[in-house]
Every structure is written in structure tokens, then in C-alpha cells.
Amino acid sequence: MWNVFDMLSYFDEAPSSTENLGSLYIDLPKKKSQVILSLHQQKKQCQSAWIALLRLNPDRQQRKQLLEITAELIAPWFVEPALLMDFLTDSYNAGGSLSLLALSGVFYLIQNRNLDYPSFYPKLYSLLDADILHSKHRSRFLRLLDTFLASTHLPAMLVASFIKRLARLCLNAPPSAIVAIIPWIYNLLKKHPLCTFMIHRVPRTSEAKAAIENEGFKDPFNEEEMDPMQTQAIDSCLWEVVQLQSHYHPNVATIATIISEQFTKQLYNMEDFLDHSYQSLVDAELSKSVKKPPAVEFMIPKRVFLPNDPASGVEDNLLVKLWDFE
Amino acid sequence: MPGSQLQRLKASLREQGVIGPQQSKKQRRKAAQNGKVNTNNRAAALESIRDEFNPFDFKHNARGPKFQVTSNRPTLGNEAKGITGRPGDAKAMGEERRRQTLLVEMNRRNKTGGIRDQRFGENDASMTYEEKMAQRFMREKQTHHKASIFDLEDDEPMDALTHMGKSLSFPDKDDFEESDLLGLQESDSDKDSTADSRGLKRIRESEDVEEQGGANVEGEPERKKTKQEIYKEIIAKSKLHKAERQAQKDADEHLREELDEELSDIQALLFQKTKLISGEQDETITKPDEFGREKMERDYDLQLRQLAMDRRAKPSDRTLTEEEIARRDFEKLKEVEDKRQKRMRGELSDGEDNNEEKDVRDTQSNATKLAWHDEEEEGDFMLGSGIRTRPTATELGFDDEDDFIVESDLLASGSDLEPIESEDEYSSVKEEEEDQEDEFTKVLLNETKSQDPALSKESNDPNNETDRISSCPENLPQLLDMTCALSPEQIPILIQKIRRLYHPKLASENKTKLASFSRVLVQYLFHLPNTASPLPWASLENIIRHLHSLAKSFPVDISEGFRSQINDFAIRCLSPTLGDMVILMAVGTIFPPSDAFHPVITPAMLLIARYLGQKIPKTTKDFVQGVFMGSLVLHYQKLSQRYCPEFVNFSLNTLVSLVPSQAIKKKVNFPQHELASGMSIAGASKIEVRKLKVIDCVTEPTSEKIDLSIRVVTLDTTVQLLDTATQLYASKPAFIETFEPVLFALRHMTESSCKPHLPAILIDHVTRLQTKLQNMLAISQLARRPLELHHHRPLAIKSAIPKFEDQFDPDRHYDADKDRAELAKLKAEHKKERKGTMRELRKDANFMAREKLRMKKQKDAAYEKKYKRLVAEIQGEEGREANTYEREKQARKRAAKR
């Protein structure tokens, strides 16, 4: 099966017209109606080959490999792309990284072949789980997500759910993910002004004010709700982003402040933020040279590892309290 | 000084030869030959003189000023009268200049030549570079030797003063005139009314002389003295004065000599006291011989000079009272703390950092460009005021810096509280180590002294220590060589000694030596824990403290050292060694971890977070390491309270992985690690909970029992860390979301499936944290408010009102675009210059044509004259011959007739 995959994936893009069929490595037959000269026939053959391959019931790893090239290489060969639908929707429903990979294929079908996938957004929403911001397909997914939510015609409630959900996930995300999510949130807020209530909500009535004063503001966002239209995220607030304004990494903290500053910039270019990693951030920090003398702690502590003399009244540092340096 | 208009006219007419004394025939002929005055030239010369001497030839705008303008500058002089130029003057000047330059060149054209000898000057190939330069310098000096007119060295006479290129003195006329001397009333009408000041002075002098002299000749009728008489009088007077002065001087001299002779007596009176005290001195003083006097005078001068040089006494700083000292210290500490707060908020004042705060939006193409804004406004939106349990300075032990007694033998100039200087820190460290040294000496006395050259001196001969440490270690192997024979406890002493020997105050190069030593020390700090066992924590602590005090003098070197260590750690990020941990610990101590951005702290923190984020613990060791890293995170963020997601993730994962039984799967927001097998704790209820040991981070536990106990302790430490974290992050806006999963995990630990397996004390910790967390979550919920981030002032619409200029000047151009204004200015200048140059060139060409024509005419005239002369000559000759012929003919005719 693997050889077949290699061979089939070797034909890269499907030719767009009969002229670009390319050389066939054999003498061309004279008759015009020969099967080999017809683009349609060629596509048909290729399609059946792929379908035969897909029917072999590939395992998870193989599926992943297939899905990786679906949108770019496989789908264009199909005369009837609907035939791919089963495979893709199955993969999409499988969850985890398979869904992630199937996403681009499904999107291809929706975009180019008019596939109707009614629960696309709920499904997309369900993909936002704890691991998504830690997976290695993060930037790929975020790119697609950016495309899916680019439309200004989407309901604000749905967009708000996505924003809130990702903000929530950011609380446990690596800095490289946070720097991508926050500009993305900014862009969405800019596109959907209704969602800006999530960052600026002044209680209007005196009763509401009193309620908030007395009981605090209860987050109406329902994390368990699977349907992005029902999560009430639009009535919530983005405290998570505000918390990230005090992120330990100065750049992340700075990026988080864009949410609370005036929205003067039209849109952020997402490509600038997507491809970061711990390594790139560390490299960026260490490649800067020290020009001016860095600040040095004024006080030299009496003890670093060993417990202080209890008589001195100086508090031990946290490590000394918790650890045994003997 | 210019003469009057008339005088100038006369002078120039004379110069041109138009007027002048009657010339003899011969002179005239000569002049004619030179072509000086013929009628043509005469006319031209007169014309030029007329032009030149018409200062009233003004150029006006034909129809008055172009625009009626009001300017804030007052109009003066020519401008006020609307005069835009003086064509006559300008023309004359231009003509004159051309005659001096262009004409000379023209005449010399095709005529000058010469040989340039390349053997001289800097072109000589055989010269060395220096000689060439010397030659060039000489040449330049010669060519540019435009000596000042006031240069006394100059042999040449001073250039006469000029006005508008004309000499002010008239060479053919003596400016001394009797009439000047005798008074202005008789001065000629054509004389300039402002006679020269020298003249005036002289007048006054002569008047004085007259008055004085007048006493003698009283009664005589006023008579005009001759010049000779006046001078005689002056001379006589001055001679008299001189004689008087001489006499006075002589008298003075005499008096002084007398006084000098009496001086010894006077001095004896003056220095009576000293004489009593110092017997030998009085000998010399009393002996009035020549030598003694000289010596005394010298001494006197010396003393005088000393007195003059003595610094005036200044009031010294008052000894401060205790309150004042305390206040001063408090202010100092407050300042330091303010600075720290500022850095924590990221408000930096230097320009350098402002570069970094470029627009975030444009600069994020890669991570280096992630611009880092200075502002964090989070404070305004925090829920509640936050628990800022910042201990006061004294609590933190700040004052131990100042408590030490400054030792007199120390090099440091006891200047206190100078954070940049290392002296006081140095001495403080030294002071502290003094007590330790005592212990060491005791130990050392028992040991063999010869074993270690660096230490044996400690006990007996502190003066000799310079011989012992051969050199300041410049790289790690050197330091290792030095320390190989030492026990870890002795290393701080060695360091201290090196620092004392190579103190920057002792020699200028010591600064660089110590700088490189501090880098080495950082490497050593990494090296020591990796090699030594058991870990000498006291020594490490001391090294860190040494590094800290060195860091105040060499912040760049130390930070570079730490950065390179961090760089190494970045490579093996997920498997840190003990050395890395010590380095991270040292970084958090030496540098302020609360800074928003710090070149050492930021990468270190990032690496710690990276470990916590990416490490998936498989063994007990990994968990212990993770807990250590987590403690470091909280240690770093103690003051700044920055949020670290990775820490929360790791702690949660630790709780989930180590508990005896798994909770029911619940949707969580943190990525759960795959559970490592055999990590869950079981049957540990009897195990004693102690503190974690750092050594556990790197060593695999030897037995199953120890392994289990370590895991239990890890769990306990994690709970404690989370306890600290809840306090730290209590005021965070998303506290509820962050810590709810923690509460779930804790709740699970107290459930029946886990409880029996865990020791009671741990359960106690857990329940305590659980209740605390519950309370805090409830408080946080109460304190939660909807976000109101955008109470910004509405953005102003761009105004289109023209900018009003307060001091408008129509002559100036007001272009808002600076570049364009500059360009316009340049263009205008270029145009002006171009026109000027063209005009000049045209005038030059005209002048040249004129001159050529004049020369041609001259030549033609000369030719014509010559031709005429020749013709006349020939004609004369021929006429004579013809006459002769005629006469002959007539004679013959007559003869024939006869």
C-alpha cells in the first residue's frame, strides 16, 4: 500500500486542461479519441486509484499522511469530489490531530466543490480542546481558523464563543501560542464590533450595578456547552487576556496590552505571529547583546541556600523554605 | 581714513595722469610712448573715474517695492530708501578686481612656463613617508602663511589700512601738518573734519606743554611757537621727569638696603618663639652671614608659598545623628525600591530602550522584533488592590550593608551606600567572612601549611600574601588548578584573597583582570556543583555573594557570563544539571527578577518555563526537577507576581500523575501528560514527609522505598508551591479560571480513593489549601467585575484648521514639510549662484573683449604711427630727391636755353 501511496502522490497537481498533460514517456497514439489523451479519462483513472487506496482502510498514521496532502494533491484529481467526502468527514469526526488534518480537506470541499457541512462550526469549536495550542499543528490550525472566521457575516455569538474559548485556553498555553491568539482576537474584535462588549461592559441599570457590587459578576460563559451559538460567551468578559498582560515574558505581556489600548490599527497580520516557538523566543533573547550594564539587585542577601539565622529576623527565600540544601 | 570725496577724486585723477604737475616736453613724450594719456584714454579714464566716483548712482525698483509688506524686522539703511544696489560702485569694483586678476592672467597667458623640479618636495620617490609628510607640511605652511597683520615676527611692513580697496594714507602727502598741530580753527576747508586721533592727541599734548611752559613766559604776548621749540620743550620736560624718577628710585634702593641690613634683628623679634623651641634654627638665624640669610629668605619664601597654597579650611560634614542616618538610609532604600518598581513596570528612562518600543504592529515579523511596550496598565483593571505583602527594607535585611565597621586597613574609602562602587559591599563581605576566617584558621593551623600556598599565609603572615597567589585566573582551567587542592570551604577565601590582591584601586589593569576573573567565577559556579559531592552549599552561597558584589562593579561581564551559561543550558534545556540549577538560582539572586525586561532574567525565566512546558516527566527525578523549576518560577515572580501558565500546567500534571488513583476524566483546559507508569503513589500513609533535597534532582533513587518517599515529598512540595502561587496570583483577574482545576485535583486527593494511601500530614496540607482556595475563589468571585478596558478618550478627528503663525514674516517661507523646505532653499541658492556665476562669466568675457580690443587698438595705433613715420620718411626722402631732380632738370633746361 505504501508504494502505491508514494507513486500516486508522485503525480503532483492535476493538470488543468488537455494541453498540460505533459509527456507520457511513450509514443503518442494517433487517434484523437484515445483514452490516454483525454484529461477526463486520466482523472477518472487516478480517482479510482486513490479510492482504491483509501478503501484499504489505512491505519491512523497512514491516514495522517493521506490527509496531509488531501487538499493540495488528491482532491484536484477527483472528478467527483463527493467521493472523498466520506473519508474526510470520517477523519474529521475522529477527533484529535486527525480532525485537524482533515480540516483543510473539508475546507477545500466546502470552498471549491460546494460541500454542505452543516455542523462545521460546532465541529470546529469542538476542536478547541486543551491540547490544540500545544500541538505541533498549531500554526496550521490557526491559519485555517483565521480563514474560517474571516467572514464578517458570521454571527457575533459564534465568534464570541471562539474568542472566549481560545482566551480560556491561553491561560494554559505556551507563550508562542499566546502571541498568535491575541492579535487574532484583536482582529476578530475589530471585525465584529458586537464582540467588543467582552472587553468593555458597563452595567447600564442600577439594579445590575448593585447586583455586581454585591455578588460579583458571574461569568455567563458555559464551558461545557458544545454549540458555539449557545455558550453565552458574548455576555462574558475576557479576564484571561487581562491576566496575560502580566505574563512573565515581556513581549507576551506587551502584546496582551493591545486589547486594552485604543483600537487604532486596522488589522494585525497573522503571519507575523504564527511561527514562534520556545526556541525562537529564547534565541531572540539571547541573540541580543548586552549594551548597557544591566540592573543588579541592590541588596546582597545574607543567605542564598542556607536558612537564615532565626535571630536575624530575615525571612528565608522560597527555595530555602521548601528545599533542603544540605 | 578715507579722504573727502574731493580728495579722493584728486588722488585718482592724479593717478590716472589726467591732472598733475606741469610736465616737461620730455616727460610728456615718454608718457605718450607709454600710451598713458592720449585723448582716447583720457576720455576713458575720465569716464571710469566718473562712474567710480558717483556714489549716488543707485538702483531702484522702477515702480517702487513689488509688494507692500509689513515685516517685524525694522528696515534700515539702503533698504529703507528702496535702494537695491549701487551699480556704479559695483561696476568699478568689479572692473578693478578683474584688472587685478583676469588681466594679469590674460597678459601672462602663453607666456609663463618653467621647469618643475620633481626632485624637491614630496614627489621625490626616494623619500620616506615621514619626510614626505614633513615636506608637505612645510609647503602648506609656506603657501598658507598668511600672517596676521599684527604679527610682530613678520619682517614685511604692515599692510596699510584700506577702505574699499583704496589705501587710506596718501603716500605723496605727509599727514603731519602744522595746521593740525595748532588747532582746528585754521584747518583747511578741504581738510577732513575728523582729523585723525593721533593728531588730536598731539594737539592736546602740545596744549599742555604750552600751558606749563606758559608759566615761564608769562606776560609775554601770545606767540605761536615753532615746531622746533615745542619739541625742545617736550624733550626737556621728559628729561626732567626721567631724572626725577631716577632719583626716587635711588632713594628707595638705599632705604631697602638699610632695611635689609636690619632684617636679622627684626626677624629675631618676629621668630622669637621658634627660636626658643628650635635651637639649631636660631643659630642660622642669628648668624647674619650671607649664606644664612639666603637660606632664611628661601625658607621664608617657602613658608609663604605654603601658606598661600594651603587649602582653606572647610567645615567638615557634621556627624549625623542616628535618626538622620536612619532617614538617609531609608531614603536611599526608597530610591532603590522606586527604581526597581519602575523597572518592574517596564518604565525605562533611557533612550536606548525607547528604540525598542517602536510600534508593536510593524515589528512582529520575528521574535526579536516583538516590540516590548513599556506600559502595563493592568493595575487599573485588577480586581481589588491586590495583596502586596512587600516586606520593608529592614525586614529584608538591607541594613546589613551598612552595619559593618569599615576597616582602616581596607583599601576602600569607607564611602557608604554607593551602589555602583563595590567597596562597601566588598568590605561587608569581607567583614562577614572575617568570622568565618577565624574558623578556617583554626582548621588550617592543624593542617599542613605547605600543602596549599594560597591558604597557608592566612594564619601567620598577611603581609606576604602577594607572593602566594601567582596570578589572577583568566580562564576556568587556571582557576581549577588553583582550587584543585582546596576543600570547597576554602574556595571563598581564595576568591576573597584574589579580590583583595587585584582590587581595582591597586593597579590600573586590575579592573580588566577582575572582570575576566568574574567571568571565570561564573563558569566555576556552574562547574563546581557538577563535580563536587557532597554539594558545598555554603561555598556556593559565598561564591554567589562574591559574584553579586562583583556584579555591582562589572555588571556587563557578569551578565555576559551568566548569559553564556544560560545559552548552554538552552541546548540541554530538558535535562538540567545541578550546575544549571545553581546558575538559575544565582541569577534570581544577583539580578532583580521583578524587572519587566532584563537581559539575564528574561531568557532564564523563559528557559525555566520551557522546561515546565515541554518536559513530560517519566521518572521521579523528572518530577523533582520540575518542582525545583516551579519553585524557581515562584521565587522569580515573588515581587512582580507575573503569571506563568507553564507552572500551573506542570503542577496540575504533577498532582494528577502522582495521586494514588485517577479521577474521572473531566474536560480540562490544561494539556494532560500521558501518565507515566509506576508513578502513582500507593500505600505511602506511613511515610514521613520531609523536605526535598536538591540532589534528588539528578540522582535516581536507590530503592523502591526511597523512590516512593521522594514522590510523596514531591507531591507535598507541589501542594505547598500551589499554596504560594494562590497567594501570589490572588489578585489576578482570571484567578477563578486558573485555580479551579487545582481545586478539583485537591478535592480528588482527599477523596476516599486516595486518602488512605497518603500520609496524614500531606492530607492535612491538602485540606488546608483546599479550604483556603475555596475561600479565595469565593472572594475572587465576589470581587469580579465586568471588564471596562476602553474608557479611552475618543480619538480626535484630524483638524484641518490652518496653523496660525504667531510671528509671521512674509520674507520667510513656511513649509511644514521640512525636507521640501530644505530642498526649496537649496534650489533657490543654486539658482542664485548660477545666475551670479553666469553674470560674472559674461562680465569677464566682456572685460576680456574690451581689453583685447584696447590692446589691438593700441597695437594698431602703434603700427599706424610707425607706418606713417616710414611713409613720411620715404616721402621726405623721395621729395628731396624729386626736388633735386627737378632742380637738376631746371638747371639743365636753363643750361640748354643758354
Automatic annotation (TrEMBL), chain A:
Residues 99-256 form the CCAAT-binding factor domain. It comes from the Eukaryota. The lineage of its organism: Eukaryota, Fungi, Dikarya, Ascomycota, Pezizomycotina. It comes from Xylaria bambusicola. One of its GO terms (cellular component) is small-subunit processome. This is CCAAT-binding factor domain-containing protein. InterPro entries: CCAAT-binding_factor (IPR005612), Noc4 (IPR027193). GO terms for biological process: ribosome biogenesis. Belongs to the CBF/MAK21 family.
Automatic annotation (TrEMBL), chain B:
GO terms for cellular component: Noc4p-Nop14p complex; small-subunit processome. Residues 418-438 have a biased composition (Acidic residues). Residues 188-206, 220-230, 306-348, 877-889 have a biased composition (Basic and acidic residues). One of its GO terms (biological process) is maturation of SSU-rRNA. The keyword Acyltransferase does not apply. Residues 1-38, 61-95, 179-230, 306-387, 411-473, 873-898 are annotated as: Disordered. Involved in nucleolar processing of pre-18S ribosomal RNA. Has a role in the nuclear export of 40S pre-ribosomal subunit to the cytoplasm. This is Nop14-like family protein. InterPro entries: Nop14. Keywords: Nucleus, Ribosome biogenesis, rRNA processing. Pfam families: Nop14. The keyword rRNA processing applies. It is found in: Nucleus, Nucleolus. Belongs to the NOP14 family.
